[in-house]
Design goal:
The chain is built from two helices and eight strands, in the order ααββββββββ. By secondary structure, it is α+β, with helices and mostly antiparallel strands. The protein folds into two domains: 30 residues; 116 residues, no CATH class. An eight-stranded antiparallel β-barrel has the order 1-2-3-4-5-6-7-8. Keywords: Membrane, Transmembrane, Transmembrane helix.
Length: 186
Amino acid sequence: MPVTPLDDHSQQRRPLFFPVVIATVLLTIIGMLGGYLLGERRNRHPSASSSASVPAWAAPQPGASSAPPLLPTDGDCPPQTQKMGRLNGAYGALGRVLRVTTSRRTVVWICQDGLGNLYYHANKGGADAEWVEYRTALFLTGVRQEPDGSFSATAAWDGTAFSVNRERVLITKPGGEPEEQKVVPD
């Protein structure tokens, strides 16, 4: 007796095209929505009225030491400082940690962004004088709080060091004598 292959066509094949297309579209929409929400969360800045607050997702976790601690702030830093902060990668509004005026009428601000990064901004002639960066004004990143409570920063282009506290501003050029400017009441 000849053997013939079994041709079992009793079950009709279900087309897979439409379920695969629908699943692909749904997964694409979910992926796009997730990417959009992550992008929005990354671009969100704290409001100016709460410049020292950090969103829960950006707050340092217990035991993490990568982010500096937040210092108390007293209002916002000037608009010129806010602009320079944005240009230099500051997170959110800059809150004022310290503001001093020297005997030479230079005003110095130490400001902090929402992640605890510190910035130095000074303007010769006071807050109301003309602001021209690198001529009358100087903005520095990478400010450190020292153990004695002072703040220090170094200008990357020439190595000039700045140290600020409530009594004095100390400016030290490489190879030069430190120049001390006393802090005076406003």
